[in-house]
User: Which sequence fits this backbone?
């Protein structure tokens, strides 16, 4: 790829609109280590920004704050409303297509990356979803435990209730519900390593952990409660209604479901191309419009909590844990490029939630509306 | 209109499915005083039920509980899924159309009905929207004051803030905000009587009350906060986006808007025909789907509170106040038919909210998402 000096001029100007100086002295300024950076970004867009970071072509002392400035300046909107620039970018990309297919290697499947990475990063609870900081937690472990407790209270759990935990990850919530509320929990995830982990950590508790997907999961049990935490992001917009219809069919007439999901501000059928390629293949952020369309006539929305800002802090904790544990990881498996990829992912998404460019919702659903009215818990 | 004995058989069977016996002894059973009732209902549907009530053709000792049973039995769904019955009803209605146009007199415009009716019914606050009972209020006045306070806290009001109160009714909230939070309030309503009332009750307060509609309202002021309480129900689905766009244009960059509205479970472009004819001509209940479609890309949803059950109790209070004050009202103006109409309206809608067939939402909106995250207030 040839470096076009015009590209450098344009990108520097765009960054300046966000208050970012190339090779400037502010901690959120970017240092460019390879002149090919400019053309890469203009030709590959968001994908090019991330991939050039992974290749060490640029850096920032405070990557999250660099992103905050980019998101707050709405650079994407500015590009879209600048016809001359759009034309320039389109031409760059057409030239790129003519140059043949690209050669970056796809990421491994996100959840196979290994417990030796996730363990230190996620902490004791192994919860890989947004924690809850609004009850004053001082540590990530406490904030994740507070999130479990928040979910249990919102679901109004009682001893002996049958609970389904869909897409349960390492089972932290299932274990919490069985241990602290005496519930009979069924949970599932398609990841075999996660199932093994849950079985090893739930001895003596009423937890049935199944190695399956939501499409394949079948049961004749009717559940009092369903928790769907960090699952909808992987379901895909065309399946939202099917997913909710299936969950509803498992629910008792007076049952309650809690849907915890990242949310997007603008309906789309795909995700940021870098995130889609390296972090969450097939992931899509649902919007209120998409979800409410899927819910209408099916379930009543009893509550809709936006707690997205909590994710910004959670992701920073994960990043700090990752950074601290990185020296002791196997660097053949987790090489420098992986480190930069993971840093870019955690700090970029932290900035996304800090600038309110993405949301985190907990939605309480029931078949007929909770009798006597639902009282929100915060 | 000829009475068809088949109609009586069908309607009695339908009511039985809701556990209601014609001329039975339970307080929620219905007493039929005119045999024409059955054919009227089957031919005119929801409109026929209400109009026959206004004419004294039937009654119930506990009309709200009669409605609760009808809503909980989902009679409407049952009728729609019964092909034979649907055909029978369609035929009845075609015959009805051939009988020529009907002669029921339309209601007066709802808000012109007169302060002598609304005063005793609504109580001291004159608030004609859902009250808030969840802080333990023992009286309607307290529950309405708690609602005002809830709105102010959700908006995070501070002394000196400029607040716009759209569709302000008798100005209870505007007065509360100016008096208790020291805000500079601009409010509007197209009802001249309401403007007079506000002016008489806001001496010495920073309240500018304008006699206008949301379409005609213009200002160069940028507001810190906007309260839209019980307004969206009158805006109409095709105007939701225009309404929100206009409100957004009045809002400061870090402003917050609170949208308080009745909500429907199923998207529609009209309302129950009886309610539409006698109570709220042109009213439509928005759904989450319709609202979120209008909001997407325009405003960020910071919170979505469903407090619908509170309306059931509020409407019962209004009914009891109305009933108590009725003897002292002018019976030439408020005749027996008006009494029955008003009773049917208040008790029917109370049952609607009690059975969760309608919702009451308070939605917090901002231009970019509240910086630092929005904390829900309940």
Assistant:
């Amino acid at each position: 790829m040839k470096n076009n000096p015009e590209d450098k001029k344009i990108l520097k100007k765009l960054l300046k609109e966000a208050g970012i100086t190339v090779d400037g002295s502010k901690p959120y300024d970017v240092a460019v280590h390879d002149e090919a950076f400019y053309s890469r970004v203009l030709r590959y867009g968001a994908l090019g920004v991330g991939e050039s970071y992974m290749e060490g072509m640029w850096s920032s002392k405070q990557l999250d704050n660099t992103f905050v400035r980019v998101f707050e300046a709405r650079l994407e909107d500015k590009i879209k409303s600048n016809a001359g620039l759009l034309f320039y970018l389109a031409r760059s990309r057409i030239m790129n297509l003519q140059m043949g297919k690209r050669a970056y290697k796809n990421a491994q499947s996100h959840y196979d990356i290994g417990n030796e990475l996730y363990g230190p990063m996620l902490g004791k609870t192994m919860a890989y979803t947004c924690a809850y900081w609004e009850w004053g937690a001082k540590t990530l472990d406490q904030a994740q435990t507070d999130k479990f407790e928040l979910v249990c209270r919102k679901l109004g759990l009682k001893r002996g209730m049958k609970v389904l935990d869909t897409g349960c990850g390492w089972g932290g919530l299932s274990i919490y519900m069985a241990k602290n509320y005496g519930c009979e929990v069924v949970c599932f995830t398609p990841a075999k390593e996660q199932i093994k982990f849950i079985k090893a950590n739930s001895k003596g508790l009423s937890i049935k952990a199944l190695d399956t997907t939501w499409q394949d999961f079948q049961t004749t049990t009717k559940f009092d409660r369903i928790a769907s935490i960090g699952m909808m992001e992987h379901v895909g917009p065309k399946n939202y209604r099917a997913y909710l219809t299936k969950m509803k069919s498992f629910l008792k007439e007076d049952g309650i479901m809690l849907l915890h999901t990242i949310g997007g501000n603008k309906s789309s059928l795909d995700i940021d191309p870098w995130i889609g390629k390296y972090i969450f293949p097939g992931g899509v952020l649902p919007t209120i419009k998409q979800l409410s369309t899927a819910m209408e006539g099916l379930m009543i929305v009893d509550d809709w909590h936006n707690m997205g800002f909590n994710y910004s802090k959670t992701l920073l904790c994960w990043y700090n844990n990752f950074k601290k544990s990185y020296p002791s990881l196997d660097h053949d498996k987790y090489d420098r490029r992986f480190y930069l990829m993971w840093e870019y992912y955690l700090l970029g998404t932290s900035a996304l939630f800090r600038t309110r460019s993405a949301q985190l919702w907990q939605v309480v659903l029931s078949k007929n509306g909770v009798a006597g009215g639902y009282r929100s818990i915060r």
In short: Chain B has two domains: 5-81, 101-366. Residues 5-81 of chain B form one domain.
